[in-house]
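User: Predict structure, ligand FE2/S2 (inorganic) cluster.
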Amino acid sequence: MSDTKKPLRRSQAWFGRQDRDGFIYRSWMKNRGIPHDQFDGRPVIGICNTYSELTPCNSHFRQLAEQVKIGVWEAGGFPLEFPVMSLGETMLRPTAMLFRNLASMDVEESIRGNPIDGVVLLMGCDKTTPSLMMGAASCDLPTIGISGGPMLNGKYRGGELGSGTGVWQMSEEVRAGRMAQEEFFEAESCMHRSHGHCMTMGTASTMASMVEALGMSLPGNAAIPAVDARRNVLARESGRRIVKMVEEDLVMSKILTRKAFENAIRVNAAIGGSTNAVIHLLAIAGRIDVPLALEDWDRLGHELPCLLDLQPSGKHLMEDFYYAGGLPALIRELEGLIHQDALTVNGKTLWDNCRNAPKWNSEVIRTVEEPFKAHAGIAVLRGNLCPDGAVIKPSAATPALLKHTGRAVVFENSEHMHQRLDDESLDVDENCVLVLKNCGPKGYPGMAEAGNMPLPPKVLRKGITDMVRISDARMSGTAYGTVVLHVAPEAAAGGTLALVRDGDIVELDVEARRLHLHVSDEELAQRRAAWQPPKPPMEGGWQRLYFERVQQANLGADLDFLVGKRGAGIPKDNH
Ligand code: FES
Ligand code: MG
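Assistant: Predicted complex:
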């Protein structure tokens, strides 16, 4: 930049200028009727909005952004809303995850390239949370997160119907011939009946809880329903608070410390959170230069109980969680298990925010002494089938299957799986292990949520509801089952998974953290010599770049060159 003296605020490198460039920076902004005094050096707050009609979970974000703006004005700041790539989980093919890192680049460059002093992140649907957190972390400005909030509980024929979870259950009922197609259609409008994101403890609710546990949002953010007036109050208060955070220079790296991530891992166990949080938190930590490893999930989380009785592991939904006291009430139960001194965006510690939080329903939020499930968290497996790790969520699995040896039934990719699964002549029974290849970061591409593959109809007809399933895929946070995920290296990167054949014996022993393929090293070496690496999914464009540079799941599946904090140094003038 041409100015020699350091500007008071970042935004003043644009708006504080008296020269030709200052004219350009201010004059075009004034076309909306902004008075001259708004450029006087007050904190400029960028509101990073993932509103999109193609992201139904975030479809109320214009209204939410207006509430944030009121708060920013009230505190003497100058709000400027901007759109970023919005990842709609239910629409985007082949999977929204393929674009998480792309959206994070949009966020990072939009923040750094613009006259922004502080950032508000509006996040909701699954990938919109990690993509914004990652991009913002690489810039490290004062930043506050606001989640869109969960939808009201789904209601169907007098009962509760949870996002995602109900689909997995009902579609198996239809396949087994126990539910009529008309009932299935009727359930569509019963499941999602208000603004907001999935109201099960799926990935969106998990990541909203992670944002709050990390200290990146005001207390209570995770569970307030999207359409509850108190969500608007939180947005407005967050708008007020971000202005103060700029004044205090409370940048993201002061909050996202190693302690904050350890707290988040523990809270993930206590809420029965999604396995997707493993990949997303590893990626966010990588962006803010906090060392975090796959094993940290097992070490910090696996002894913890799950306190929360929510679908998919339990029966309640996010609306019930909020009325029961929400995340602050749950964190209060973890008194001796969290780092109490971790700083949060309101300037207080996590413990200050939660120590007096009231709990209104002890059936929904249990205690450490009398938990909902004794062993929660994520188990990290190792073995010749996953030398760089794989994960399983024991609380969502069938206890009897956590130690199981069986014959592999192998699907080369998801098309092969769909083709073969309903074939009555498929040689499979409930003791087999279903193995799915080529659904990892490079293989799908994008690491699809294909890990909870459906069971073969002939097994379903026996009334069996779970089998051991193994893949390099992810699994929807709303899904459940004895499902081994995130096998690394993935098949498309030449992992042992690529070499598994029908009839091989696979041994899973979660207690011993072991996943072993009973095939000799010599035989595996022979099979490996015949293995052909796949071609990129496209010759050019984003998918080519992604394929070449994406890291494996155990490293957070970020692109290698995106890892790290690059700050928000002020770029050169544009004229
Ligand atoms: Fe958007 Fe579940 S599909 S949160
Ligand atoms: Mg999902």
